[in-house]
Design brief:
Blueprint lengths: L1 E7 L7 H4 L7 H16 L4 E7 L5 E4 L4 E3 L8 E3 L14 H13 L6 E6 L4 H12 L5 E6 L18 H14 L2 H5 L3 H6 L5 H10 L7 E7 L6 E6 L1
Parallel strand pairs: 1-7, 2-6, 2-7
Antiparallel strand pairs: 1-9, 3-6, 4-5, 8-9
Helix pairs in contact: 4-8
């Protein structure tokens, strides 16, 4: 059963070594992520599952100990998902889960075993089913859900300016802050794709996992500093 969840954005720029001189611009987002992870720790889960976007249409699991790297950004920084385990040494975390691993290492997470799930652009029904399966795997499950809102908030945004982006992001922030499962499940997959909102599928996994859990939500951060919507929320 799901006992807590944290929702965080997943840009590699969240890692100061990657952001370099621009690092202070996301200090508030990092602080909010730390607060959200504190909610997970306080719930004393028996298992933590990290869910984040991944390319393609399917999904991929990542056992504890899987490594990730930010070397593709010219940074000599490697991370590991949770403690060292029996992970395939050839498998590598997608950037969304590498950012999650960095966040967990940053707070010294040791409260529960960790595993990862990379989610492609799966339909809402499949996402919800994955969430229900995750929640049923342990008496006390926590989720760390990674994903960005639209990438079309300004002219210099990765997806250029789209007038639909701000209303879309506002509804996402409201739904995540209110733990509104119906609203998250109903997010328009086509619109989310057009707005380059990488969090759509992971948020719908969360909605499936939270069915029947009666969790309340709290919005901790919402902004679009680079024309990309970043949302941090905690459910408990």
């Amino acid at each position: 059963m799901l006992v807590a969840a944290a929702v965080c954005p997943c840009p590699p720029l969240l890692v100061p070594d990657v952001a370099v001189g621009a690092a202070p611009e996301l200090d508030a987002a990092r602080a909010a992520c730390t607060d959200a992870l504190g909610v997970l720790a306080a719930a004393r889960p028996g298992r933590l599952v990290v869910v984040g976007p991944e390319g393609g249409a399917g999904s991929q699991t990542y056992p504890e100990g899987t490594s990730g790297s930010f070397r593709g950004f010219g940074v000599d920084l490697d991370v590991r998902l949770g403690a060292a385990g029996d992970a395939d040494t050839e498998q590598r975390l997608p950037y969304s889960l590498a950012v999650a691993a960095w966040l967990l290492e940053r707070i010294g997470w040791s409260d529960a075993p960790v595993e990862g799930l990379g989610v492609g652009e799966s339909p809402p029904e499949r996402c919800a089913r994955s969430g229900r399966d995750i929640a049923a795997r342990d008496e006390r499950v926590a989720l760390l859900v990674m994903g960005d809102a639209s990438a079309c908030r300004t002219l210099k945004a990765p997806g250029y300016l789209d007038e639909r982006a701000a209303p879309f992001d506002a509804e996402v922030a409201r739904a995540l802050g209110a733990a509104d499962l119906a609203a998250l499940t109903a997010l328009d997959t086509g619109l989310a794709h057009e707005l380059k909102a990488s969090g759509r599928a992971p948020w719908q996994v969360l909605a499936g996992a939270a069915e029947g859990a009666n969790l309340g939500g709290s919005l901790l951060y919402e902004d679009a500093p680079y024309g990309v919507g970043y949302v941090v929320a905690a459910w408990s």
